[in-house]
Amino acid sequence: MFGLPVSTTLLVVGVPAIWVLYTLGFLWVTKNWPGLKRNAER
Amino acid sequence: MNTTVLLFLGLYFLTMLAVGVVSMRRGGASSMEGYYLGGRNVGPLVTALTMQSTSMSGYMFLGAGSLGYTQGYYGFWYAGGDIGGGVVNLSVLGRRMRKLSQIMGALTSIEYLEKRYPSKWVRLIAAGLSVFLLGAYVLAQFIAGGKGLELVTGLSYELSLFIAIAVILGYTLMGGYGAVAYTDVVQSLIMVVGIVWILAATLNEVGGLTAANQALAELDPTLLSIWGRDLVYENQWGIVLGALLIFSIGYMGWPHVVTRHMAMRNPFHARRAGVYSTLWNLVFVSSPYILGTLAILVLPDLDDPEQAIFLLAHNLLPAAVVGIVMAAIMAAIMSTADSILLQTGSIAARDLYERFINPNMQEKQMVRVSQLIVLVLGVVCGIVALFEPPGVFAIVVFTTSVLGSAFLPSYVAAVWWRKANTPGALTSMIVGSLVAFFWQYLSLDVVTEIHPMLAGVVLSSLAMIVASLLTQSSHPVPEHILSAMEETAELRPLPRSLKSQQAFEMAHEALALKTQARTA
């Protein structure tokens, strides 16, 4: 991809993709977190 | 000296000062919690952007570009880790650290360590290490700010330095953490606009990314490799894993970054802040490394690779846009300098002066002392920066690895491991800082092919585990801390009785008395 070797493509595209999946996983795991209304937890 | 560029920079500086005035009027300097933590009233977007812009210093425009220029795509090991740094920090520490710090009434990230690991030595060692390393970092950012402004405006270095420091001190003194956080938001947006603009112009110049990579391959195919120019890092997994770690988990050990958790309005805002962090990083973080690499094609005979991004902007963009890019570079430097200046001043005031020298101050008095120390620190660093001492950047080279290795296990274990105790934290801090320092100082990374950060974090984590387990019977974790940790793990608002402990009068002195009374 983009004229890069496979290993470089994995680093340039694959690692950010892993972080996107991590973020989505974090959203999934925390979907039941309460107290998201303004000032609810102060 | 270009008038349009000056106009943009002038507008930018005035905007920063205006944010400081607004923060002051909103009570940023009226209480300790207000000055140190923005009254713990910072929303998720501001939390994410202040965390990211604080983490990304002028290095992103100077050092990252230089790494791309000299080593090609190898720099993406650092970028790859950096992209996940914010969400890892917020997901691992965010909610729990916010709750625990409020239960314990901690106002600085070093005070938080002493309250979780009760010992004056924890406070003294952590504060001393932070003030020394972060002080050097402030100095380096000031020098970079003065140099950057000198380069852009043509003004003398001395005058440029004075303007940069005066603006930073102006809004930091007026509005404290609130001013720093909200100026960081503006600065993070300027950074993104600036970097995206110059990236678009550079890609246009080189005919797109694929064409650029083909041209690079003709020059030197190893520039496209993950192992650096001439494959200098080939199969050195200890080095590249350390490069990934330094910015992905290393931020969890930086006192000025983890303070952002403590200032959130709501512990559960860590969730949205994590998403915003990833989005911002996806746009911003890789760009300086790509630009540095592409600069090989546009500016093949560059004497100083650190000038790569600046010269790309200068050569490829119209004057008005160059002004935005220059403001972006100043924003990257200033957004880090202000946070570290405030944090270093807060640690010196709260964790050293008040804790060990004058513990009987009133709250208003303490705020003024904090402001005075920030002012003195800024002025002293400014004077030292005039002479550009060569040793400063040598210290800064150690800062990232030493801070990360020293504090990461203590911050993570503080909220996740009930057996983490005071001897464990002390041993971990000492081992982590010494290993990371000497690993780099003695160039053991060259001998062992293991990055100082990787060595430091692994050994400081082991030190935390071994020392804590060996001393469980002699130094058990106090009951009130275990209760606080249990409450921290709960997915519910803090009970009213626990919230009361954040009041100024319930600071460390009162908490210590309360603990002693319980023990008696």
The largest pleated sheet of chain B is described as: none
Task: Provide the CATH architecture of chain B.
Answer: Up-down Bundle
Question: Largest protein interface?
Answer: A-B, 28 and 41 residues
For the record, give the distance between the C-alpha atoms at the N and C termini of chain A, rounded to a whole number.
49 Å
Q: So how many helices of chain A?
A: 1
Main beta sheet of chain A: none
Strand content of chain A: under 5%
Assembly of the depicted chains:
heterodimer
Gyration radius of chain A (Cα, Å) is 17 Å
**Radius of gyration of chain B from the CA trace?**
23 Å
Overall pLDDT confidence of chain B: 87
Query: Mind telling me the CATH class of chain B?
Result: Mainly Alpha
Structural class of the helix and strand makeup of chain B? mainly alpha
Q: Give the helix proportion of chain A (percent range).
A: 55-70%
Percentage of β-strand residues of chain B: under 5%
H/E series of chain B? HHHHHHHHHHHHHHHHHHHHHHH
Going by helix content, strand content and strand pairing, the class of chain A is: mainly alpha
| pLDDT < 50 runs, ≥5 residues of chain B | 500-514
Q: What is the first-to-last residue Cα distance of chain B?
A: 71 Å
- The SSE string of chain A, one letter per element, is H
State the helix count of chain B. Answer: 23
